[in-house]
Design brief:
alpha/beta, 4 helices, Trna Endonuclease, Chain: A, domain 1
């Protein structure tokens, strides 16, 4: 089953759905607003997940890859720009294990994401 999912054309969509569900669950359990948004401009620039925090707007890019190559980091940097001064450090949630900061983007391994979404 895991081998089939790794090659399935819907893998990215399924992974994104998992992360959005975990974000909603974590925010509800932390007694925070469960309102989550998606954003895309007319040029195709997007943020897969956006939510409000007391400190500003949290933007998140979600990728099902196990690594975070430079092009994903650049995409994360771009997708946070729409929020302007209200944007917090952009998060990139991916299928890898390591969580760290790189080039102004916070990389979050999927296993660490639930706790991160609740506390911001």
């Amino acid at each position: 089953m895991a081998e089939q999912l790794a090659l399935h054309p819907m893998r990215g969509a399924l992974f994104e759905n998992l992360i959005v569900s975990e974000a909603r669950k974590a925010r509800l359990n932390a007694d925070q607003s469960p309102k989550l948004y998606f954003w895309r401009d007319n040029n195709g620039l997007e943020a897969d997940l956006v939510f409000e925090t007391p400190s500003g707007l949290q933007t998140i890019e979600i990728k099902s890859g196990h690594t975070a190559p430079p092009d994903l980091i650049r995409a994360g940097q771009k997708s946070a720009r729409f929020a302007g001064d209200a944007a917090l450090t952009h998060w990139l949630v991916y299928a890898g294990d390591a969580s760290c900061a790189r080039s102004g983007v916070r990389l979050i391994g999927w296993r660490d994401f639930g706790l991160t979404a609740a506390v911001g």
